[in-house]
Amino acid sequence: MTRTRSLASGLLSLSAAAVLAVATAGGASAAPDATDDKNTPATASVTVEDTGAAEYWTADKMKAAIPGDVLAGKALERGNRSAVPVEKGKGSQVSPTRGKQTIAASEAPVKHIGKVFFTLGGANYVCSGNAVSSVNESTVATAGHCLNEGPGAFATNFIFVPAYENGAAPYGKWTARKYFAPTQWSANGDMAYDTGFAVMNQLGGKNLTDVVGGSGVAFNQARGLTYKSFGYPAARPFNGETLKSCTGTASNDANNPQFGTQGIPCDMTGGSSGGPWFIGTSSSGVQNSINSYGYSGSNVMYGPYWGTVIQATYQSAAIS
After folding, report:
1. Which of 54, 103, 130, 147 has the greatest number of beta carbons closer than 10 A?
2. What is the spatial distance between Cα 216 and Cα 285, in angstroms, rounded to a whole number?
3. Which first-to-last residue range defines the signal peptide (predicted)?
4. Selection from 252, 297, 234 nearest residue 70 by Cα
5. What is the C-alpha separation between 173 and 240, in angstroms, rounded?
6. Which alpha helices (DSSP H) does 38-169 contain, by range?
């Protein structure tokens, strides 16, 4: 029996219809799937009180944070149920067969990619995220389930730690001032829209992307592109202390085609949720999805198709 292992596992400043990029995006534009196109873009937003969030996250709390994979599994049970049985977190934490080589490669820290820490339901969690180009120069892309229960409450104590490595926060701990998520996620927990954006407060009088840079973003792209994904997997056999990556050609999720998602070969585990997918084979590409979920034993990471709905959410966040 196939079981789901949930993973935690711009710039529309130039043109709202354009593919936004620091570097040029590859691939021709294509119409989104029906799962995206038939829904009216609508965005839920919440203003955040960040008082004490940076101080809240001590080194011990960051180390003890729970990989966010359980949240995606819970979202599936509450909202858009999977066609296969859900296994909340357990599947992503099973160690590979002894001697089996992992797919994920080790990476040096990247300034604009980091770890996301937050509290939901009284528990502390960890995911991954990426700073993206935006009008406000302060926007971070992550998984929807790393911001909102889907459906349910929004997170508290949210911080972004760019270029995290072995407990170090070389560019500081950035606190959030506002969250944005598609209502399809925040109201229904629909895995097709498992993406969220957090707008960060200034730190030391500076905006986030002025300090660490930001990736361009792309929407409504062709399917089957080559991607490189990044994240901080924290569930076994990884420890969440260093950045990992996977590279491969995307293919549709045959287990749950209603999600309209795509997957690439990858065995990153819980904690990697929300990490960016870049078109091409490097972190200098444009972001076009995030790490969302996987299936036990499949060694495939799935991410939502970034179509018009997620584009509208990004637009709202980018100018906030």
Report:
1. 147
2. 7
3. 1-30
4. 234
5. 17
6. 53-56, 59-64, 69-78
> Is cis: bond before 233, omega within 30 of 0?
no
- HSE at residue 146, side-chain half, CA atoms within 13 A, is 40
Extract the tokens encoding 166: 């072995």
Q: Parallel, antiparallel, or unpaired for β 123-132 and 66-67?
A: parallel
Q: Are 125 and 273 in contact (CB under 8 A)?
A: no
Token pair recorded at residue 92 = 């992503």
Contacts of 15 (CB under 8 A, 6+ apart): none
CATH numbers and ranges of domains, the chain: 4-11+32-89+106-318 (2.40.10.10)
Helix extents (H) in the chain: 34-37, 53-56, 59-64, 69-78, 183-186, 208-212, 308-318
pLDDT in tens, 132-191: 999 999 999 999 999 999 988 999 999 999 999 999 999 999 999 999 999 999 999 999
Q: What are phi and psi of 17, to 5 degrees?
A: -100, -5
Q: Give the pair of three-digit tokens for residue 148.
A: 């909102």
Could you write out the DSSP letters of every residue in 16-46? TTSPP-SSPPPS-B-PPPHHHHTSPP-EEEE
